[in-house]
Automatic annotation (TrEMBL):
Family matches, as Gene3D superfamilies: 2.70.98.10, alpha-1,2-mannosidase, alpha-1,2-mannosidases domains, GH92 mannosidase domain
Signal sequence coordinates: 1-19
Entry protein name: GH92 family glycosyl hydrolase
KW Hydrolase (keyword) present: yes
Disordered: region residues: 741-765
Pfam families named among the record's database cross-references: Glyco_hydro_92, Glyco_hydro_92N
Organism: Massilia norwichensis
Enzyme Commission identifier(s): 3.2.1.-
């Protein structure tokens, strides 16, 4: 292993030459997870930002969504993955594994013990020592390809296993070309018409032996197999420390396209050249945000979170011979021109992930909007969860927020008229599955809410999210110059949240078709009328009209008291809807923060609602508490599912000192920075500079704020202010400033206080 260890030392020396953003990333953050308790539910993804493919060491068995868990002790292979979360599982996967000694190719037989002490996980590079085979394994990625380097001992029995997985697969060994090709058809969520993930694997050493296998048996005399579970195993004679290199690429389109991806992305580059390019790309993307000061762990948490934010949705498109984007469509199975992305749930990511893309990476979101156009054209609906096509999970119609926000925040250069048609279609029709369009739409249109007794699960949560989505549609319609006769209905529906407010409890509550509230009512009951939460979590889901919610609750003091109660109530729960304690419940229970359930998305914006009620110092206090107590750059570093960048985006936004409570509004609610200094390098060439000298855990409160030299007391900053390039100077204090940000005009945007909004209809009781 001498040569392997020298190579590893060289890699670490490169990383340590100068601390770059990439060097602070820990891809193992969040990997100490299991179905019963999530500390992130992540895996160490080796790839490029928004790349089509990622690679990970595979500790779980084939088909197990927990593909890599930190407490595992054996690696079964290095898997190409497109998995957005363990709950969604994977598609288009295959694995590669080096072994020595007896010919071993099934997932259990080829598995090798490993130690984290002999493992290096970085976004651009992964290495590990496979103890059972005495092999060092390294890999480094491109967007659709990768290079492997295996360092073998002296042996006549060195092998590389290729596993195309079950559910129908194909392999072919071509010894004369030192090549293995094939495809996998395994996917977790479908149907996926004409789905194949083609791959090509090019070796730099000739094979001594070549065989293919089916399940657990070698197919005698064959070099090709199209069976339920196909694989290949090729053998070598190796000297001590000899490296065997492999170049791998894949395609959802064809074998020819996989070969093209290999040529376009790796070409004649050696392993180190590919790694250098990958590192440069990561540093360019992560380096768009510089944070200075704070502890090393805070910087590691920041950049590890940012790393998670720039992975999904990942590219589903490829480049043809002319360099033009083309894609296989998960909706109709055809190969078509244009871009497409997959692997995200808008229920999670509309909240903060997409707002961050719009601020810091608008060009990639512009591509994503092009992809949404194609989703609608090819499938008839916008996806709410794509993996890679329509997945029937979660609720809401939050594609409306994702589409509206992008245009309202200045993105251009794509077919917004088709997306407008898609939003109108989705907002007024029930889809073929409950997770596209709007389940319960006829009742929603007639009554203004989805009734609890209408046979639609999680009806109150749907109503609240539909109301916000209608606000987003109305705002986009106004920006596009649509006539009031067409868009007024969305302004009216945006107020539908009011119909579920129960004055008796001061909380949101399910309602029956006859107008009566659901009885009995337990505000601590998870599920039922709500989604992965209870009434204490979902009551705050009035993203667009917090002032209206303040008014319903009886004014500012009553509102603040209600917010405070979330922290002081005991973490009791009623899990009867699920029949078991789901992991989201357990994560709330053990966090020691009362009813606050940061490990799931519905309540994550709640901390910033103090800004709307004249108590911004409470936002500042609790945001810091959550950052301090619930995030760390370790395998147990998250407090629930990371969820495609959303839980990470909360941390990144909060550590910069602001948060997008209302994504489709051009304002951010202010908190307080975590770091003494940060610089945002915007795509337009301007910079946002955030300074908070003397900032510390003890000095977490904002005594005063100047924006571009002007003192401000408001609890928000505008998107346009940031885009022009801004300087935010925070004066921090150990004591809260109880006189700052307390006026009603200091509050961020609310629909009910918008003078341009249509008047609310008279409510009848």
């Amino acid at each position: 292993m001498k040569h392997f260890l020298m190579a590893a030392a060289f890699g670490l020396a490169l990383a340590g030459a100068k601390a770059a953003p990439l060097d602070f990333v820990n891809p193992l953050m969040g990997t100490a997870s299991k179905p019963e308790l999530s500390n992130g539910n992540t895996y160490p993804a080796v790839g490029l930002p928004w790349g089509m493919n990622y690679w990970t060491a595979q500790t779980g068995k084939m088909g197990n969504g927990w593909t890599y868990t930190y407490d595992a002790d054996r690696i079964r292979g290095f898997k190409q993955t497109h998995q957005p979360s363990p709950w969604m599982n994977d598609y288009g996967q295959f694995a590669i594994m080096p072994v020595t000694g007896n010919k071993r190719f099934t997932q259990d037989d080829r598995a090798s013990w490993f130690s984290h002490k002999a493992e290096v996980a970085r976004p651009d590079y992964y290495r590990v020592y496979l103890a059972d085979s005495d092999v060092g394994a390294e890999l480094t990625p491109t967007e659709r390809a990768a290079q492997f380097r295996f360092t073998f001992p002296k042996t006549e029995q060195a092998w590389v296993v290729v596993d195309a997985f079950d559910k129908g697969s194909y392999v072919k060994v071509i010894p004369a070309e030192r090549k293995i090709v094939g495809y996998s058809t395994r996917y977790a969520r479908g149907p996926l018409p004409n789905f194949r993930n083609w791959f090509v694997i090019q070796f730099d050493k000739a094979f001594r032996t070549s065989e293919v296998w089916d399940g657990d048996k070698i197919i005698a005399g064959a070099l090709e197999a199209q069976v339920q579970h196909a694989g290949a195993i090729v053998g070598f004679s190796t000297g001590a420390g000899e490296r065997v290199g492999m170049r791998v690429a894949s395609s959802f389109i064809s074998l020819e396209q996989a070969e093209r991806n290999l040529a376009q992305e790796i070409g004649n580059d050696d392993f180190d050249a590919t790694r250098a390019k990958a590192g440069k790309r990561w540093n360019a993307v992560l380096g768009r945000v510089e944070v200075k000061g704070g502890s090393v762990d805070q910087q590691r948490t920041f950049y590890s979170s940012l790393y998670r934010m720039v992975q999904f949705p990942n590219k589903l498109y490829e480049l043809d011979a002319a360099g033009q984007p083309i894609h296989w469509s998960p909706y109709n199975g055809q190969v078509l021109p244009g871009r497409m992305f997959a692997g995200t749930g808008f229920w999670d990511t509309f909240r903060a992930l997409y707002p961050f893309l719009n601020l810091m990476y608008p060009s990639i979101n512009r591509e994503m909007q092009e992809g949404l156009v194609n989703d609608f054209k090819e499938g008839g609906w916008l996806p709410e969860w794509s993996s890679p096509g329509y997945a029937n999970v979660m609720i809401g119609n939050n594609s409306a927020s994702v589409v509206a926000e992008a245009w309202l925040k200045g993105l251009r250069g794509y077919d917004i008229e088709t997306l407008w048609q898609a939003l109108v279609h989705g907002a007024n029709n029930a889809g073929p599955i409950q997770a596209v369009g709007r389940a319960g739409i006829e009742d929603y249109k007639r009554l203004g809410y989805v009734p609890i007794d209408a046979g639609i699960k999680e009806s109150a949560a749907r109503t609240l999210e539909y109301a916000y989505d209608d606000f987003a549609i109305y705002q986009l319609g106004k920006a596009l110059g649509k006539p009031q006769s067409e868009i007024a209905v969305y302004a009216e529906r945006a107020r539908n949240y009011r119909k579920l407010f129960d004055p008796e409890s001061g909380l949101m509550r399910g309602k029956n078709r006859d107008g009566s509230f659901q009885t009995p009512f337990n505000p601590f009951k998870w599920g039922d009328a709500f989604t992965e939460g209870n009434s204490w979590h979902y009551t705050w889901s009035v993203f667009h009209d917090v002032a209206g919610l303040v008014e319903l609750m009886g004014g500012r003091q009553s509102f603040v008291d209600k917010l405070d109660a979330v922290w002081t109530l005991p973490p009791v729960f009623d899990e009867s809807y699920y029949g078991e304690v789901i992991h989201e419940i357990r994560e709330m229970q053990i966090a020691g923060m009362g009813q606050y359930a940061h490990g799931n998305q519905p309540i994550q914006h709640m901390i910033y609602l103090y800004d709307y009620a004249g108590a911004p110092w409470k936002t500042q206090y609790w945001a810091r508490e959550v950052m301090n107590r619930l995030y760390r750059p370790t395998p147990d570093g998250y407090c629930g599912d990371e969820d495609n960048g959303q839980t990470s985006a909360w941390y990144v936004f909060s550590s910069l000192g602001f948060y997008p409570v209302t994504p489709s509004s051009p304002q951010y609610a202010l908190g307080a920075p975590l770091f003494p200094e940060a610089v945002l390098h915007l795509e337009n060439g301007r910079s946002v500079r955030i300074r908070a000298p003397g900032n510390s855990d003890a000095r977490r409160y904002v005594a005063a704020l100047r924006i571009d030299g002007k003192a401000v007391t408001r609890n928000w900053i505008g998107h346009d202010e940031l885009l022009r390039g801004a300087r935010l100077d925070f004066r921090m204090s150990a004591q809260p400033n109880l006189r700052r940000g307390i006026r009603e005009q200091d509050a961020p945007y609310s629909f009910s206080t918008d003078p341009t909004a249509p008047p609310a209809p008279v409510e009848r009781h």
